[in-house]
Write a structure and sequence with these properties.
The structure holds two protein chains of two kinds. By secondary structure, chain A is of the alpha/beta class. Chain A has one domain (10-120, 209-383): Thiolase/Chalcone synthase (Peroxisomal Thiolase, Chain A, domain 1, 3-Layer(aba) Sandwich). Chain A has helices at 28-43, 67-74, 90-101, 139-153, 164-175, 188-193, 221-227, 257-268, 286-294, 303-306, 325-329, 335-345, 380-383, and strands at residues 10-17, 52-56, 80-84, 107-114, 196-199, 201-202, 212-220, 232-241, 277-280, 359-364, 371-378. Chain B is mainly beta. Chain B contains one helix and seven strands. The longest helix of chain B has 8 residues, at 16-23. The radius of gyration of chain B is 16 Å and the shape is globular. The model of chain B has no long low-confidence stretch (mean pLDDT 92). The chains are: A alpha/beta, B mainly beta. At the A-B interface, helix 4 and strand 5 of A face strand 3, strand 4, strand 5 and strand 7 of B. Strand 5 (196-199) of chain A pairs antiparallel with strand 3 (62-71) of chain B.
Chain lengths: 384, 141
């Protein structure tokens, strides 16, 4: 039984995305507005109902997705507006949920869009003065360090290539997803021949850089029930950040996820075995290993086996990133995962539909592993 | 052709003594005068106790590889002719961890737990802190 103040109060009422991939000549603003209009059209929600606006600042050719400008563009004077510089969806949703639960807004549109694929943005990552001079560039460097440490810590160096199971599963899921960028099948042999980018990571282990936009609309649950059929209920949020980063004893393994796990499961009154669908912010494949272990889906050092035995496939016991994730669908920092879980929990995921899904979990892995958050979502039955 | 410079250190009020130390061939880090914590990255106060007085202390330059990667792709054109190159997270015997390159060996010969010794390498206007395997010759191959 849910036991926190949020449960039953906030629901996802719309989650829409543009096609992912290349959108030459279109700005992030174009794509954000397209996603916003799609969310209104697909949900049937009248735009006069929107009284909150949150954007995620993006790194792209059009500059930051600044909320005032977006409000001007779509003719919106919300009660509350704001932005986060790095949302990975969970943080923006948590912000929206707080506005709604505290009565500052009743229906919040959250928008993320980018044209970083065609807009000329080079994803070098931040110029850490203690890293960049040594060539430590791009978040893949951080992810690679973490994966190497993982393989060493658990004595799994010989099993490095088992990581490929994730890329292959994601490609299979994306083939069933019309908005995904990478829909061509990939074989194991192709994976093993794929180039190293930052050893121990191959290109296929790293997210795509895509153009696209997403809009999520969250609402007060009572209002949601009046306006849309089958809203998806937020059952709980857990968060734990680790801002001291490398001063923390084992930051690379993201042990702080365990606090997010205890909080989110405790608040929702659920356990990992209750989760039907798992969504992990997969900027890099190893993030999934850390999430599976720290959230309690498998034991420490076991996730390489867990992803390889079919359990995470669409017909497995724990379907994961069912739309292809960021390795094959598109890199929208966790926002597309929300579009997908919204479809799945409403039975609208077409050929990817996992029958009977009631509970979905999203796990954010943000930035340089200094932020974690997890959200549990459920159907009306799961929220009751 | 436009030449994009190698990303270079930009010393600020918190890090100037560190970069000056490297130029002089010394690895200096700030030790908190109140609690003894060696603060890395540097800032206005000790992250352990918030005291503001530091003594810049010479470290031994000895450390071990905590984790490492090998870059096969240049995310900045300045690194294209260095490929492949390693980046290691080095744990100093005094505690702090920092990023660097392990030099004097092939890029992929680095190993977790490898014992290291600091070397100071001038590069552009700055001197960078790199490491070589402990006991190895100072001469680079």
């Amino acid at each position: 039984m849910p036991n926190d103040r949020l449960s039953g109060k906030v629901a996802l009422v719309a989650a829409s995305a543009t096609r992912q991939g290349k959108h030459p000549g279109r700005t992030a603003w174009d794509l954000g507005v397209e996603a916003y209009k799609l969310a209104l059209a697909e949900s049937g929600i009248d735009r006069s109902r929107i009284d909150g606006l949150l954007t995620e600042m993006t790194q792209d050719g059009a500059g930051a997705m600044e909320p005032t400008r977006f409000g001007q563009m779509v003719g919106l004077n919300p009660r509350a507006s704001g932005s986060l510089h790095y949302g990975t969806a969970a943080f923006t949703v948590a912000y929206a949920a707080g506005l709604i639960a505290s009565g500052q807004a009743s229906m919040v549109a959250c928008v993320y869009a980018t044209n970083q694929r065609t807009g000329g943005f080079r994803f070098t990552g931040s110029y850490d003065p203690f890293g960049a001079p040594y060539g430590f560039l791009n978040p893949a460097g951080f992810a690679g360090l973490g994966f190497q440490r993982y393989l060493h810590q658990y004595g799994r160096e010989a099993d490095r290539d088992k990581l490929g199971a994730l890329a292959l599963t994601m490609r299979h899921n994306a083939a069933l997803n019309p908005i995904a960028m990478m829909r061509e099948p990939m074989t194991e042999a192709e994976y093993l021949a794929d180039r190293w980018v930052v050893w121990p990571l191959r290109r296929a282990d790293i997210c795509l850089i895509t153009d696209g936009g997403v809009c999520l609309i969250l609402a007060d649950a009572e209002l949601a029930a009046d306006l849309v059929a089958d809203p998806v209920h937020l059952l709980g949020i857990g968060r734990q950040d680790a801002l001291r980063m490398m001063e923390n004893p084992n930051h690379l393994m993201m042990p702080h996820m365990r606090q997010s796990a205890a909080e989110v499961y405790g608040k929702a009154g659920l356990r990992p075995t209750d989760v039907d669908l798992l969504y992990v912010q997969d900027a890099h494949a190893p993030a999934v290993l850390h999430a599976l272990e720290n959230y309690g889906f498998c034991g420490d050092g076991e996730a390489l086996d867990f992803i390889g035995d079919g359990r995470i496939a669409l017909d497995g016991a724990l379907p994961l990133n069912t739309s292809g994730g960021q390795l094959s669908e598109g890199y929208m920092v966790g926002w597309l995962h929300h579009v997908e879980l919204f479809k799945q929990l409403r039975g609208q995921a077409g050929p990817r539909q996992v029958p009977g899904s009631q509970v979905a979990q999203f796990c954010a892995t943000g930035g340089f592993r200094e932020f974690t958050a997890s959200l549990l979502y459920g159907t009306k039955a799961a929220a009751a | 052709m436009i030449r994009i410079p190698v990303p270079h250190p930009e010393p600020d009020k918190y890090t100037q003594p560190y970069w000056d130390g490297l130029k002089a061939g010394r690895l200096l880090l700030p030790r908190c005068c109140n609690c003894g914590h060696v603060q890395m990255p540097m800032g206005p106060c000790c992250a352990e106790c918030l005291a503001e007085d530091f003594a810049w202390e010479a470290m031994s330059g000895r450390g071990t590889v905590w984790a490492y990667v090998v870059y096969h792709h240049a995310f900045h054109p300045a690194f294209a002719d260095r490929l492949p190159y390693n980046v290691a997270l080095v744990e100093l015997v005094e505690g702090p961890r920092l990023l660097s390159n392990v030099v004097g060996i092939a890029a992929d010969v680095v190993r977790t737990g490898m014992q290291l010794q600091a070397v100071f390498e001038p590069e552009g206007d700055a001197t960078l802190l790199r490491f070589r395997p402990a006991g190895a010759s100072e001469e680079k191959p």
